[in-house]
Amino acid sequence: MSQKLKASIINIFSLGPIGFFLMMNFIGTYYSYFLTDILKISAAVVGTLLLVTRIIDTFAVPVAGGMVEKIPLPWGRYSGWLWLMPPITTLFVALMFTGPDFGPTATFVFLGAMYILAHLSINLTESAQYALLPVIAYTDEDRVLISARRAQAMSAGGLIFGFITVPMIAALGGNNEGRGLFLTVLIFSLLQTAGYWLAANVSRPFDNAGAGQTGRRATLREMAGQVINNKPLFILIVAEVCRWSASLIVMNLAVYYFKYVAIKPVYFTAFLTSRSVATLAGTALGQFFARRTSKVATWNIGMGFNLLFLVTAWFFSGTPPLFILLHAVAAVGNSIVMTLSASFFTDVAEYTEWKTKTSAKGIVMSLSSLPIKISMALAGAFAGYSLSLIGYVPDTETTPELAAAMGAFSTLLPAVFAILAIVLIRLYPLTEHRVTIIRKRKARYQGN
To answer: What predicted TM-score, i.e. pTM, was given to this entire model?
Structure first.
């Protein structure tokens, strides 16, 4: 099916998973805090727990992509996974925010297992939706539009998250913050189930037994080799890791900065909301720049903007209103690039299928979530170990040294990753012109 997609299909497919972004924003922002300040687990142990589980989660991404590619479900080759996995995700994400009294070692194992199981189901769902993108959208225009709409859904999820999360936790928890965290993440998880079911419903007509099949199926060995041997894919993944790390490190440390430095709860709500508004604005700018210049040039504009204002925010980390404003402007730059992510990976999927003469959409598109997983591992580890480095103790009194460290960690660390993202994208070889040629050659050998 190669005609232009209806706007309603693009919007529902891309915007439906807003609940997923609410859930993932919550996990990224509050899970480390839940472990240190609710369960009272030491910062070093939390850093180790998050690093180990997220490394396992990272290696599970290509496994999930392989499962989605190799196991077509009867109620939709790819869309079937969108019906099956989200309720399972809801169960395990809720269990992540519980505090069983099993003793230190057993609790560590339990929480690690819940995290891994939750994220395996998330990986399967994301792999399936990404694999559907090149199946339902044939033209470059539709693919860029879906990529942009998905980024806008992510921004909308962040905006809603910023407005409602802090008051939701307070209202649902009362005097029990842990209960508030649990009930809030449960609601967000249920919303992600409903959103993915909407996406599954609109993509079903495109998703038959032969969906995505452009040649023989890749073997598991070939799928695993894509991460290392596919130069455009490898460069894109590493560059995306750096881009995501520049954002996620900020979010992992923000809850601590606003508890111990800015102190006023209203500041944290303002921070979350302003970043979300900025991210939404950045996705619109990303579309604007992408239409007028190349994707690589748009990437450099966005990450350059991000870098400039992260460094500037460091100088004003002792002034919360300016700190919030500058972080919001930095978020505009990162979200300019976020607009292009799915489109970049779709280009790599086209290149891979042309190069290998195999059906590779499932595995390549599933790997688009790999950078987020790696970045979450890095961000969680950096947060835990950075806090441990300065001798962090929950509910401690704020000292000038603690305030200075919080300000530096939440600005200069992500700035380093922004620099790396700018350097790495210069090595990316797939220009728009080359992808157009590849698509034409691919169509010829398929007999289209």
So the answer is: 0.68
